[in-house]
Amino acid sequence: MLDHDILIIGAGLAGMRAALSAKELGADVAVVSKVHPVRSHSNAAQGGINAALTDRGDDWRDHAYDTIKGSDFLGDQDAIALMCQEAGSEVIAMEHMGAIFNRDEEGRLGTRAFGGQREARTFFVADFTGQALLHVLYEQILKAGALVYEEWFVLSLIVRDGKCGGAVMMDIRTGRIEVVRAKAVILAAGGLGRVFEPSTNALICTGDGMSLGYRAGASLMDMEMVQYHPTTLKGSGVLISEAARGEGAYLLNSENDRFMLKYAPEFKELASRDVVSRCEQTEINEGRGLDGCVLLDVRHLGEKYISERLSQIRELAMDFANVDMVKEPVPIMPGMHYQMGGVKANVDGETGVPGLYAAGEVACVSVHGGNRLGANSLLDTLVFGRRSGIHAAEMVKSTQHVNVDDSAADDDKSNIQQLLANDKNESFGQIRLDMGTAMKEHFGVFRDENGMREGIEKIESVKKRAEDVYIADKGNIFNTNLLFTLELGFMLECAESIAVSAADRTESRGAHTRTDLPDRDDVKWLKHILVSQNDGGGHELSYKDVVITDWEPVVRQY
Amino acid sequence: MKYAFYPGCVSRGACPELYSATIEVCRILDIELNEEALKGASCTGAGVLQEKNLRLGDTLNARTFAMAEKSGNPLMTICSTCQGVMSQANERLLADPEYLASINEDLKEEGLEYKGTADPKHLLWVIVEDLGIDFLESKIVNKLNGLKLAPFYGCYIVRPTKALGFAENSGRKQALEMVIESVGAEVVDFPGKTLCCGFPILTINPENSVNMVANHTIDAKDRGADAMVTPCPLCHLNLDGYQPNAASARKREIDLPIIHLPQLLGLALGISPEKMRLNKHIVSTKKLLSELVISP
Amino acid sequence: MEVKFNVRRYDPESTDAVDHFQEYLVDMDDSSTVLDGLIRIREEVDGTLSLRCSCRSAICGSCAVRVNGEAGLACNTKIIDVLSLDGKTVTIEPAGNLPVIKDLVVDFQPFWEKIKSVDPWLQPEGEEPEAEYLAPDEDMLHLAGVVSCILCGACVSDCTVMEVDSNFLGPAALAKSYRFVGDPRDDSSQQRFKTLNGYGGVWDCTRCMKCVEVCPKGVAPMDRIMALREQVMESGYKNTNGARHANEFTNSIKHSGWLDEKKLVIKSFGIFNIKAMIGLIPLAIRSQRAGKVPPIFHKNIPGVENVRRIFEKVETKK
Lengths: 558, 296, 318
What we know:
The structure holds three protein chains of three kinds. Helices cover 35% and strands 19% of the residues of chain A.
C-alpha cells in the first residue's frame, strides 16, 4: 500500500499547477497520470490565455462581464469574478517560470483578440500556447522534484463513510494494482471528448475523472453544456485554433459571403463559440455549405504574418486537410471540443465529498456556464489548479488518513478478471464509435425532444452491449486493450449524464440549443442541473441556483 | 556537357585516386571539365567552418557559386560533403533576398556577385539526371556481373532532403543503387547505407568513429558484399583508413574494400585499375580485382 | 486501397519472447495516416497490438515509431507517402535506441533522464520583477522554433551517435539546452556550457543531420548543437579536440583557402597529446604505404588574398 498526503489524478496544466502549489506548502504530493505529463491534452490548446492586466488599462470587471455574457448567464458570477481577478498574476507567474509569450515592441507581453471579448487580452505563444505552458510546468515539476506515477491508470476512488481516502490504481507497465492512501485526492483528469465522434480531443480524453468522481459520490453539474468549436477539420476533427479568427480570419459560405456579418454585426467572426457554431450549422443546413463545411480564410493576412503567429495551424491544415492556408481557404465545421460541465467544485476545488477536490476541465465551478470563451480554459486550469493545491495542502495538515488496507483493491481486481474472462464478442472500438455517433447526432449543435429521447435509448442499448466486450489481450504488461475497455465504462457513464441533463433542460441556453424550445427561460432556468448516483446505482437530478452578483442577465447580442 | 569542376579538398589531398579516376571517367562519358573556373574557389567549410561562423561559410560558398556563374558552366562536385554543404548554403542564400544582398556586398570588391542560379550537382546526380542511365549503359564495356556491392551514400548527399531537392528529383534517393545495377552488379542493401561513417568525429571521439565503421562494414560484409562503393571521399577515408582499427576492436576480419564512385564507373567503362590507383587503398582491392574479369 | 502493414511485435510475457514481424492486410483511404491504420488494426483486427498514441495531431509526441526504418510520428505520416516500392507495404517498428517494452511501446526512461540531466528549467538571476521580464519579441520568436519540441523522441530514435554511444546527451537534450542558453532571461549559460563542453556533450555530435530530417516539428536539433558549439567556444572553452578541430579548420581555410589535412589531424588532437600522436602512427604508416598522403607542401589556392579579405570582413562583423 502506498501513502501520500495528496494524490493528484492527471498531470495536465491543472494537475501540475496543483502539485507545484501544494509542494510549495510542504505537502507530500504525488501525481498520477495514465500518460507522461507532457502527453496530457493541455498541450493541444492553441490560441492563448486571457487576463486583464491593470497596468495596461484593462479591468478584470470587463473580462468578467465578457465571460458571464459568454456563458449565457449560467456562469456563477462570484467564481468568475475571482478567476478574472487572479488571471493577471497567474499569467505573470507563468512568464516568470519561463513561458516564451509573444511580446510587443517594448518587450512587454503582447496580446491578440479572441472570441467574445471586447478587449484584446489574450496572451499567447504563437499558436501553441497550451503546449508551451504544459512544458514549462513540467520543467518546474522536474525542478521541484515532484513525484509522478507515470503511466499508472486510476481504477477507482476509495470512499469510507462518505469520505474520500485515496485511490486504487494500476501500473500500466507491469499490470500491478496498488492501493494508494491519500488524505486528499484532486481530480484533474480533464475532459471527455471521446464520448463524441468526431471530436477535437485526444484519445485519452475519456471522462475518467468525471466518472470516478460520480462513482465516489460527487455530483456532475452542467453536463448538457458541451461546446462545439466552430473551426474543426472534417473527418479527423482536428482543431484549427480560434487564434486564426483572432488574427483576422474570415468565415465564408458557399456563396463567398462573410455570413457572420449578418448574425453578429458587432463581433462578427469573434462572437462566442456557441453562436458561431450555430451560425455555421445554420448556413450548412440551409444549403450554403460545401460538403458539410464552411470556409476559413486567412489568405489576406499574408505568408509572413501567418508563419509568425499561425505556423502550427498552417502545418495542421497541410498535414490533415491537404490545404495550404496561405493559398486557399480551409473547409471547417463545428466539432465537439470541450465540456463546460463536470464534477461540481467550488473556487477551492472542494466537491462536497470530504477529501475530494476537482480542478480544470474535469470540474465545473462554474466559470464557463453554458459556453466557454476561448482562452479561458488555460486560465481556469491554472487558477483553480493552484487554489485546489493550496487548499488541499492546508487541509491535510489537520486530517487523518481514512481506514484503508490492500483489500480496497479487491473489487477492481475481480472486475478486471471478469472482463478478461468474458468470452462474448463485442468490440470496444465499435461500441465507442456507436456511442460517439449517437451522441453527436442526438446531442449536437441543435437538439430536440424526440432526438434526445432517442439518444438516451441508444446510449442505454450501447451500455448493455458494453457488458459483452471481448478483450483479446490477456497479458499484464501494457495491456492497452484492457485499458480501453475500462475507459469505455467511464465514457458511457458520462454519456448518460450528458443525455439525461440535456433532456431535462427545457430551454435553450449557451451551447444547449433546442429547435423545439429556442428561447432562453430566465424565470425557470437560471439554475444548474446536477446529476448524482443514488443508492440503487441509478441517477438522480437536482438543481442549484446560479450565483448572480453584479451583472443582471440580458439578451445576448454579438 | 561542360561543367565547372569543384574537386574539393580531399581529392587533392589524401584521396588523389579519386581525382585521377574522375578525370578518366569524365573523359569517356564526354563530360568536359572546366578546371580553371573554380581554381581559386575555397573549401566549402564542410560544416566545421559553419559551426564557428555560419555567415562566413555562406559567404565563401556564395563566392564559389558566383565564380561558377561567371564561367557559364554548371557546378559539379565529387564529394557528398561538398554537395551537402553547398546545397544547404544555397538554400539559405535563396530563401532570404536581404541576406543574399548583404553577402554580395562582401563579394563586390573581388568583382563577384552571386545571382542565385547555381545548382551544384554531384557526379552521381549528373550521371543519373543530366546524362541518363541509358547513356551510361551505352558506354559500358565491362559488365561487372556477379559483383555484389553495398552502397554507402554519405550523410550530406541524403539529408536534409529539402535542401537537396529530393522532392523535385525523385531519382536522388536511389541514385547509387541505380548506378550499381546499371554496371551489372548486384546491390547489397543494408540499413547503414544512409547512416554516418563517423568521419566528422574521427579526431573528437575516435572510439565512436571506429564503432560506426565497424557496424557498417561488418553488416555489409556479412550480408555478402564484395565491396562498398561511396560517392564521398571522407566516408572512404574513414571506412577504408580506419577499417583495420575497427577489425581489431571487434576482434575479427572485415576485409571489405571501399571504392570511390568514379573507380566503380571506371572499371565498367574499361579504364585500368592502375590508372585509377585502385592499388592505393588501405584495405586492399587485390582480391576484388582478381575476381573480376577485366578486359584490357 | 489495400495496405499490408508489416508490424514488429514483441510480447515480453510469451514463453519465447522474441520479436518478429506480423502482417496485417487492411483497407484504408487514400488520405489515411499510419496511425489511422494502426488504430484500425487494434480495434478491428488484433486487440493485442500495443502502441502509444493520443492527440492524432502531432502535438503530444506519443506516437513516434519507425516507418520503413525512419523515425517519425505515426499520426502525421500519410500512408500514401510511405508505401514501399511495391506500392502496397508499410513497415512499422518501435523507435530505435530505446529498450522495447512491448510491440511499438519503448521505454522512455533513458530519454527523460537525459532531459533531466541538462537542468531544463529557466534560471534567471536576481530579484523577480513584479511584472513580466522584458524581452525582445525576436528572441521569443527565435525560441519558438526550439520550444516547438514535443519531446517525441524521433531524433533520439535515429541518432547515429546514440546507436554506438548511449552516453551522448543526444539531440533532444542538447536542443533543450539551447532553448535556455538562447533565452535572454536565463542566466546560467556559463554553468550549462561546462556540462555541454564535457563528456557526452556538444562535441559528440557527428553532424549526420538525421535529427534534422526526422523531427516532425522543425526543431533542427543539429543546428542548435552547432550554435551551442559556437557559443561554447566563444565563451572560452577552447581546450577540447572539437574546439581545436574547428579552429584549425578555420585557420587552414583562412590562410591557404583549403584544407591542410596533416596539420588538421595533428592540431585537433593537440601536438603535445603524446598518446594520441603515437596512436596515429599506424594510420600514418598505412597511409604512407598506400600513397594516400596529402602533398608535403601545402600550397595556397590562387587568389587566396580574396579569401583572407572575406574572412577579415565577416569576422569583424561578428
